[in-house]
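Incident log, support desk, overnight shift.

02:14 A customer reports that sequence design results differ from what the structure should imply. Their input is reproduced verbatim below. On-call engineer (initials T.W.) acknowledged and began investigating.
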């Protein structure tokens, strides 16, 4: 019988049911099929490093094929591998999945590599004028429907979309922002926007949109997921709606957990996001929202942007950031601070909860080897593609992925 190679991880501490276990050895069967024998090709003395479950990437857009000069699926798959992500929820703003041929094509490309689910566009070309063929897309395998991260400004159109989409039973992923209030704003309206001379987005632009979406969801009993929540008051509205039985979930972006609007004093366009960074008090409440269950998930919001679209003045720059390769390391120390020494809770929000929702069980097939004490610097080489638009570039992080075991392949991460 053909013999395959394996990797033996010695003295690792696995995370099981939310608790770290005593040191043990784990044999990784690389490229082995059922019934095949294996021989140890490599032994790695982990010396107490952590064997962690892989992650789920919510909010992924690789921007191909319309913008493959920026990024490609190959870049995205490599980024997922480096960051310990085995599954994702994908939606393309550049190339909306608004008909069945597009859905079939992108599923064929992506699911050769990873377990990826797809959001179809609720409107043709993400223009919010004509409703897409939701029932056909749903029957064709769309996990849910999205707005392409373009807030639906026409409330009547959104009402019709949720009413029609209700027949599919699928969830609508919506970015709550009232365009008339946001207008040309790029940052949170407050002390720092006034000081820096930036056009501000008031928190009411989010809270009013949240209220409108929740009202429509309640009326039609259509499930909704609110993206990139940034305001403390939004959480109060969502918590109240959950108590009333509204089918709502929500997420918070990685960088909204790490930064607040005081970062604007750097004038760096890397701090421009679709939902603006709010105040330090808002950031504190976002962490509390995760801990008390009001916020269900953390989103990576992985959106590659060309250097020339970032290396310009703040208000003319393109919003977005990449994060797949650094998400776990970026959150590890801050999560430890916010949870009184329990950074493993990250996996509830960036793994367990979204995987449960997607019906994914890969606990015994994949893992991340992680060094929680390693201090390292994020460089351009950290990232898989040709772009590295992140406010954490050249910053030092504590906690590093040493290797990943994904789809029966051991990958050493430098």
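02:41 Re-run completed on a clean worker. Output:
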């Amino acid at each position: 019988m053909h013999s395959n190679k394996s990797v033996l991880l010695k003295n690792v501490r696995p995370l099981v049911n939310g608790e770290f276990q005593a040191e043990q050895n784990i044999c990784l069967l690389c490229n082995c099929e059922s019934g095949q024998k294996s021989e140890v090709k490599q032994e790695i003395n982990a010396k107490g490093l952590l064997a962690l479950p892989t992650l789920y990437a919510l909010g992924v857009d690789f921007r191909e094929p319309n913008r493959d000069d920026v990024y490609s699926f190959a870049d995205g798959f490599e980024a997922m591998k480096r960051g310990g992500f085995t599954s994702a929820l994908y939606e393309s703003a550049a190339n909306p999945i608004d008909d069945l041929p597009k859905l079939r094509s992108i599923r064929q490309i992506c699911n050769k590599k990873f377990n990826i689910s797809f959001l179809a566009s609720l409107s043709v070309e993400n223009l919010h004028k004509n409703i897409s063929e939701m029932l056909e897309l749903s029957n064709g395998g769309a996990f849910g429907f999205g707005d392409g991260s373009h807030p639906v400004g026409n409330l009547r159109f959104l009402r019709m979309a949720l009413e029609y989409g209700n027949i599919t039973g699928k969830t609508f992923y919506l970015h709550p922002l009232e365009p008339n209030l946001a207008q040309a704003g790029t940052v949170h309206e407050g002390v720092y926007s006034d000081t820096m001379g930036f056009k501000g987005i008031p928190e009411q632009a989010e809270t009013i949109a949240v209220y409108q979406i929740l009202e429509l969801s309640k009326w039609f009993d259509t499930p909704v997921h609110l993206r990139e929540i940034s305001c403390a008051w939004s959480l109060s509205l969502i918590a109240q709606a959950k108590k009333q039985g509204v089918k709502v979930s929500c997420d918070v972006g990685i960088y909204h957990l790490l930064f607040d609007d005081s970062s604007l004093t750097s004038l760096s366009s890397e701090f421009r996001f679709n939902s603006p960074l709010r105040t330090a008090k808002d950031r504190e409440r976002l962490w509390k929202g995760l801990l008390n269950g009001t916020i269900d998930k953390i989103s990576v919001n992985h959106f590659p942007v060309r250097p020339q679209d970032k290396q310009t003045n703040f208000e003319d720059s393109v919003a977005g950031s990449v994060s797949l390769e650094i998400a776990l390391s970026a959150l590890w120390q801050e999560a430890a601070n916010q949870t009184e020494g329990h950074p493993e809770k990250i996996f509830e929000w960036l793994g367990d909860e979204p995987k449960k929702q997607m019906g994914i069980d890969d606990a015994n097939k994949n893992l991340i080897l992680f060094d929680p004490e390693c201090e390292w610097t994020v460089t351009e080489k950290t990232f898989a593609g040709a772009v590295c638009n992140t406010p954490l570039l050249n910053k030092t992080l504590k906690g590093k992925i040493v290797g990943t075991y994904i789809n029966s392949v051991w990958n050493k991460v430098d």
